Amino acid sequence: MTQGSLDIEALNQQIYLDSAFIETLRTETSKVIVGQEEMMDSLLIGLLTRGHILLEGLPGLAKTLAIKTLASAVDGSFSRIQFTPDLLPSDVIGTLIYNASIQDFTVRKGPVFANFVLADEINRAPAKVQSALLEAMQERQVTIGKESYLLDEPFLVLATQNPIEQEGTYPLPEAQLDRFMLKVNISYPSKAEERDIMRRNLNGADFTEMAKVLDKDTILRARNAVKRIYMDVKIENYILDIVFASRNAKMAGITDLQHLIAYGASPRASINLALAAKAHAFLKRRGFVIPEDVRAICKNVMKHRIGLTYEAEAENISTEQIISKIINHIQVP
């Protein structure tokens, strides 16, 4: 056995120990959230990699409940911002208030100063409000007046948008969509899951007494553990092949996609695909990344980073279909 394989085996054992809290956290959140494993895993990936999540789904699919549940299980602060057309940037980040008693301005911090921020229906607010939140997401600090204030870690933004109500909305520009690590489409629960949901609500289940099974220090240690997860150069090249195929399908040998893609994924896709693959391996309690980790989260990382041509829209071809073709074409290491 080589030195390298011994190191990876030791790392694998250490990651298995470091990720022990994942099962406890999943058990606690499952007391409230029925099913929706992909959504909960996406939230955990964002938490482990300092990434933000955009959830898109129909009303009543537990988008809001999911982040409230995660915040309840973690010893962290939670705030909800209901985005509306009359919202102002100061309603999100805060403002200066004149204090007559001291004859000076004092800072009133906005709801963005929390560990878990729910931006509900983000596409209902105008661009200047969206930009105020997205700047905080990217810079992890907020400027009020002449002073800048760092946001506490962990800092996770979960933004939601409703795909069926487009009247009176302000769709996120492509450059701002790129700031979100993952975009997750939420689907309906199965009949068995919905029966469980219905019974819990009819029985008057009380979800307020959730145990806090995770503290901030554990999250920060887990983030460092995720960074140590081994990624072979073959996996790195596999990620790059997928991203570059979205930019130049013809060069990748997928000629039937060339006329369907207006623009491909940005370098943020490569970075986030690698980070999310490591986090996915961590959730599986492994110390190394395998191709299945990349394939499992590829669509959620890339679907909002690929632009479609008019031909693709006319043929009702989605970005998920394009990504599936790319994944199926690129040789797995």
SSE diagram, text form:
Elements: H1 3-18, H2 21-29, H3 37-49, E1 53-56, H4 63-73, E2 78-82, H5 89-93, E3 94-99, E4 104-109, E5 116-120, H6 127-139, E6 141-144, E7 147-150, E8 156-161, H7 174-177, E9 182-185, H8 191-202, H9 216-228, H10 233-247, E10 261-263, H11 267-283, H12 291-302, E11 307-308, H13 310-314, H14 319-329
Parallel strand pairs: 1-8, 1-9, 2-5, 5-8
Antiparallel strand pairs: 3-4, 6-7, 10-11
Helix pairs in contact: 3-11, 10-11, 11-12, 12-14
Annotation keywords:
15% strand; 14 helices; 2 domains; Rossmann fold; alpha/beta; 333 residues; 47% helix; Helicase, Ruva Protein, domain 3; five-stranded parallel β-sheet
Distance between the termini: 22 Å
Reported CATH architecture of the largest domain? 3-Layer(aba) Sandwich
Task: Please identify the oligomeric state.
Answer: single chain
Treating each run of at least 4 consecutive H or I residues as one helix, how many helices?
A: 14
Largest sheet: 5 strands, parallel
CATH class of the largest domain: Alpha Beta
The strand count comes to 11
So what's the overall shape?
globular
Number of domain units = 2
Helix percent reads 40-55%
CATH homology-level superfamily of the largest domain:
P-loop containing nucleotide triphosphate hydrolases
Strand content: 5-15%
Low-confidence residue ranges: none
Arithmetic mean of pLDDT: 83
What class would the helix/strand composition place it in?
alpha/beta
H/E element sequence: HHHEHEHEEEHEEEHEHHHEHHEHH
* Rg on CA atoms, Å: 21 Å
By CATH, the topology of the largest domain is Rossmann fold
- Arrangement of strands in the largest sheet: 2-5-8-1-9
